[in-house]
Amino acid sequence: MFNRKKKEPKIKKPRFQTFRDAYKVTRAEKPWIGWALIGLFLVVLVVGISIGFWLGRPIYGGFVTLPLAALATMFFFTRVAGSAAYASIEGQIGAGASVLMAIRKGWTTTPAVAVNKQQDMVHRSVGRAGIVLTGEGGFAVRQMVTDEKRKSERYAPGVPVIEVFVGDGEGQVPLRKLQKHVTKLPKKLTPHQMREVRARLKAVGGMSLPIPKGPMPKGVKIR
I need a surface site. Which of 68, 69, 134, 157 has the fewest CB within 10 A? Predict the structure, then answer.
Protein backbone atom coordinates (compact mmCIF):
# COMPACT_ATOMS: atom_id res chain seq x y z
CA MET A 1 0.00 0.00 0.00
CA PHE A 2 2.75 2.40 0.86
CA ASN A 3 5.73 2.89 -1.41
CA ARG A 4 8.85 2.36 0.61
CA LYS A 5 12.14 3.24 -0.85
CA LYS A 6 14.46 0.31 -0.82
CA LYS A 7 17.92 1.00 0.43
CA GLU A 8 20.48 0.46 -2.25
CA PRO A 9 23.03 -2.16 -1.25
CA LYS A 10 26.38 -0.74 -0.32
CA ILE A 11 28.91 -1.68 -2.93
CA LYS A 12 32.06 -2.94 -1.31
CA LYS A 13 35.41 -2.36 -2.90
CA PRO A 14 36.72 -5.66 -4.31
CA ARG A 15 39.73 -7.04 -2.48
CA PHE A 16 41.59 -7.40 -5.76
CA GLN A 17 41.16 -3.68 -6.46
CA THR A 18 42.43 -2.86 -2.96
CA PHE A 19 45.45 -5.08 -3.53
CA ARG A 20 46.05 -3.46 -6.92
CA ASP A 21 45.92 0.05 -5.45
CA ALA A 22 48.32 -0.94 -2.68
CA TYR A 23 50.67 -2.47 -5.24
CA LYS A 24 50.66 0.71 -7.36
CA VAL A 25 51.60 2.86 -4.36
CA THR A 26 54.26 0.40 -3.26
CA ARG A 27 55.75 0.16 -6.73
CA ALA A 28 55.93 3.96 -6.98
CA GLU A 29 58.01 4.07 -3.80
CA LYS A 30 59.88 0.79 -4.31
CA PRO A 31 60.18 -0.13 -8.01
CA TRP A 32 61.86 -3.44 -7.18
CA ILE A 33 58.84 -4.86 -5.35
CA GLY A 34 57.56 -6.93 -8.31
CA TRP A 35 60.82 -8.82 -8.84
CA ALA A 36 61.23 -9.26 -5.09
CA LEU A 37 57.79 -10.89 -4.77
CA ILE A 38 58.42 -13.25 -7.70
CA GLY A 39 61.88 -14.14 -6.40
CA LEU A 40 60.66 -14.85 -2.88
CA PHE A 41 57.80 -17.02 -4.14
CA LEU A 42 60.14 -19.07 -6.36
CA VAL A 43 62.79 -19.47 -3.67
CA VAL A 44 60.32 -20.84 -1.13
CA LEU A 45 58.76 -23.11 -3.76
CA VAL A 46 62.14 -24.46 -4.91
CA VAL A 47 63.20 -25.15 -1.33
CA GLY A 48 59.98 -27.09 -0.71
CA ILE A 49 60.34 -29.14 -3.89
CA SER A 50 63.99 -29.84 -3.03
CA ILE A 51 62.94 -31.17 0.36
CA GLY A 52 60.33 -33.28 -1.45
CA PHE A 53 63.02 -34.77 -3.72
CA TRP A 54 65.13 -35.53 -0.66
CA LEU A 55 62.19 -37.37 0.90
CA GLY A 56 61.37 -39.10 -2.36
CA ARG A 57 58.07 -37.21 -2.84
CA PRO A 58 58.73 -34.11 -5.00
CA ILE A 59 55.09 -33.68 -6.10
CA TYR A 60 53.87 -33.83 -2.52
CA GLY A 61 56.60 -31.37 -1.48
CA GLY A 62 55.55 -28.93 -4.19
CA PHE A 63 51.85 -29.30 -3.31
CA VAL A 64 52.51 -28.53 0.35
CA THR A 65 54.96 -25.71 -0.32
CA LEU A 66 52.77 -23.83 -2.83
CA PRO A 67 50.43 -22.23 -0.23
CA LEU A 68 53.40 -21.60 2.07
CA ALA A 69 55.19 -19.74 -0.72
CA ALA A 70 52.08 -17.63 -1.37
CA LEU A 71 51.69 -16.89 2.34
CA ALA A 72 55.34 -15.85 2.71
CA THR A 73 55.06 -13.61 -0.35
CA MET A 74 51.90 -11.91 0.94
CA PHE A 75 53.43 -11.39 4.38
CA PHE A 76 56.50 -9.78 2.81
CA PHE A 77 54.32 -7.58 0.60
CA THR A 78 52.24 -6.50 3.59
CA ARG A 79 55.30 -5.31 5.48
CA VAL A 80 56.78 -3.48 2.49
CA ALA A 81 53.45 -1.96 1.46
CA GLY A 82 52.90 -0.63 4.97
CA SER A 83 56.17 1.30 4.97
CA ALA A 84 55.54 2.49 1.40
CA ALA A 85 52.10 3.81 2.34
CA TYR A 86 53.59 5.95 5.09
CA ALA A 87 56.42 7.11 2.81
CA SER A 88 53.89 8.16 0.14
CA ILE A 89 52.19 10.68 2.45
CA GLU A 90 55.12 11.69 4.66
CA GLY A 91 55.76 15.40 4.40
CA GLN A 92 52.30 16.17 3.02
CA ILE A 93 49.86 18.53 4.72
CA GLY A 94 47.66 16.61 7.14
CA ALA A 95 49.62 13.35 6.96
CA GLY A 96 49.30 12.88 10.71
CA ALA A 97 45.53 13.32 10.51
CA SER A 98 45.35 10.67 7.80
CA VAL A 99 47.18 8.22 10.06
CA LEU A 100 45.08 9.05 13.12
CA MET A 101 41.78 8.79 11.24
CA ALA A 102 42.77 5.29 10.13
CA ILE A 103 42.41 4.14 13.75
CA ARG A 104 38.92 2.68 13.59
CA LYS A 105 38.41 1.21 17.03
CA GLY A 106 37.97 3.36 20.13
CA TRP A 107 39.22 6.67 18.72
CA THR A 108 37.67 9.62 16.92
CA THR A 109 39.86 12.30 15.36
CA THR A 110 38.98 15.86 14.39
CA PRO A 111 41.66 17.00 11.92
CA ALA A 112 43.14 20.48 11.85
CA VAL A 113 41.44 22.05 14.85
CA ALA A 114 44.14 24.74 14.62
CA VAL A 115 46.17 25.90 11.59
CA ASN A 116 48.55 28.84 11.02
CA LYS A 117 49.93 30.54 7.90
CA GLN A 118 52.94 28.21 7.85
CA GLN A 119 50.50 25.28 7.57
CA ASP A 120 51.41 23.98 11.00
CA MET A 121 48.37 22.23 12.42
CA VAL A 122 46.95 20.49 15.45
CA HIS A 123 44.64 17.45 15.36
CA ARG A 124 42.42 16.40 18.27
CA SER A 125 41.73 12.73 19.04
CA VAL A 126 39.47 11.40 21.79
CA GLY A 127 39.70 7.88 23.20
CA ARG A 128 39.88 5.92 26.42
CA ALA A 129 43.27 7.52 27.13
CA GLY A 130 41.68 10.97 27.13
CA ILE A 131 42.29 13.82 24.71
CA VAL A 132 45.33 13.58 22.43
CA LEU A 133 46.52 16.74 20.70
CA THR A 134 48.85 15.93 17.81
CA GLY A 135 50.97 18.72 16.39
CA GLU A 136 52.51 18.75 12.91
CA GLY A 137 54.90 21.46 11.81
CA GLY A 138 57.70 23.69 13.07
CA PHE A 139 58.48 25.36 16.35
CA ALA A 140 55.25 27.41 16.38
CA VAL A 141 53.13 24.27 16.62
CA ARG A 142 54.08 23.82 20.28
CA GLN A 143 52.36 27.05 21.23
CA MET A 144 49.37 26.02 19.13
CA VAL A 145 49.14 22.73 21.02
CA THR A 146 49.37 24.61 24.32
CA ASP A 147 46.50 26.88 23.30
CA GLU A 148 44.36 23.91 22.25
CA LYS A 149 45.19 22.18 25.53
CA ARG A 150 43.76 25.13 27.44
CA LYS A 151 40.58 24.98 25.36
CA SER A 152 40.22 21.25 25.93
CA GLU A 153 40.71 21.64 29.66
CA ARG A 154 38.04 24.35 29.70
CA TYR A 155 35.48 22.24 27.84
CA ALA A 156 36.40 18.95 29.53
CA PRO A 157 37.88 19.71 32.97
CA GLY A 158 39.67 16.85 34.68
CA VAL A 159 40.16 14.84 31.48
CA PRO A 160 43.79 13.89 30.69
CA VAL A 161 45.20 15.88 27.77
CA ILE A 162 48.22 14.33 26.05
CA GLU A 163 50.52 16.23 23.70
CA VAL A 164 52.11 14.45 20.73
CA PHE A 165 54.43 16.00 18.16
CA VAL A 166 55.03 14.31 14.81
CA GLY A 167 58.58 14.22 13.53
CA ASP A 168 61.93 12.45 13.69
CA GLY A 169 63.53 14.75 16.25
CA GLU A 170 64.02 14.27 19.97
CA GLY A 171 60.75 14.03 21.87
CA GLN A 172 58.80 13.55 18.64
CA VAL A 173 56.95 10.51 17.28
CA PRO A 174 57.75 9.36 13.71
CA LEU A 175 54.75 9.27 11.39
CA ARG A 176 55.06 5.51 10.85
CA LYS A 177 54.85 4.94 14.62
CA LEU A 178 52.07 7.44 15.36
CA GLN A 179 49.19 4.95 15.29
CA LYS A 180 50.93 2.51 17.60
CA HIS A 181 51.97 5.29 19.97
CA VAL A 182 48.41 6.58 20.34
CA THR A 183 46.72 3.18 20.65
CA LYS A 184 49.22 2.07 23.32
CA LEU A 185 48.44 5.02 25.62
CA PRO A 186 47.08 3.85 29.01
CA LYS A 187 43.30 3.97 29.38
CA LYS A 188 42.08 6.59 31.84
CA LEU A 189 38.39 6.98 30.97
CA THR A 190 35.43 4.64 31.06
CA PRO A 191 33.41 4.21 27.83
CA HIS A 192 30.67 6.44 29.29
CA GLN A 193 33.15 9.19 30.21
CA MET A 194 34.71 8.97 26.76
CA ARG A 195 31.34 9.47 25.06
CA GLU A 196 30.63 12.45 27.31
CA VAL A 197 33.97 14.04 26.41
CA ARG A 198 33.26 13.55 22.71
CA ALA A 199 29.88 15.24 23.09
CA ARG A 200 31.38 18.23 24.88
CA LEU A 201 34.19 18.69 22.36
CA LYS A 202 31.84 18.34 19.43
CA ALA A 203 30.74 21.90 20.10
CA VAL A 204 34.33 23.10 19.69
CA GLY A 205 34.44 21.82 16.12
CA GLY A 206 37.40 21.96 13.80
CA MET A 207 38.43 22.94 10.30
CA SER A 208 37.89 21.00 7.10
CA LEU A 209 41.16 20.66 5.20
CA PRO A 210 42.18 18.20 2.46
CA ILE A 211 43.75 15.07 3.92
CA PRO A 212 46.27 13.01 1.90
CA LYS A 213 44.61 10.13 0.09
CA GLY A 214 46.12 6.67 -0.31
CA PRO A 215 45.92 3.07 0.86
CA MET A 216 46.50 3.74 4.51
CA PRO A 217 46.63 0.61 6.65
CA LYS A 218 43.64 -0.52 8.68
CA GLY A 219 45.01 -0.67 12.18
CA VAL A 220 48.76 -0.83 11.53
CA LYS A 221 48.90 -3.03 8.47
CA ILE A 222 47.58 -3.07 4.93
CA ARG A 223 45.49 -6.19 4.55
Answer: 157
Phi-psi region of 140 (alpha: psi -120 to 50; beta: other; left: phi over 0): alpha
With contact defined as beta carbons under 8 Å apart, do 148 and 122 qualify? yes
Q: Which long-range contacts (CB under 8 A, 24 or more apart) does 12-20 make?
A: 18/215
DSSP-assigned letters across all residues of 47-84: HHHHHHHHHT-HHHHHHHHHHHHHHHHHHHHHHHHHHH
- The angle formed by the CA atoms of residues 144, 194 and 190, to the nearest 5 degrees, is 130
* pLDDT per position as a tens digit, 152-187: 888 888 899 999 999 888 889 988 889 889 999 999
H helix intervals, the chain: 15-29, 33-55, 58-89, 95-101, 140-155, 178-183, 191-202
Partnered with residue 115 across adjacent β-strands are 121
For residues 166 and 185, what is the distance between their CA atoms, to the nearest angstrom? 16
Q: How far is CA 82 from CA 10, 30, 38, in A?
A: 27, 12, 19
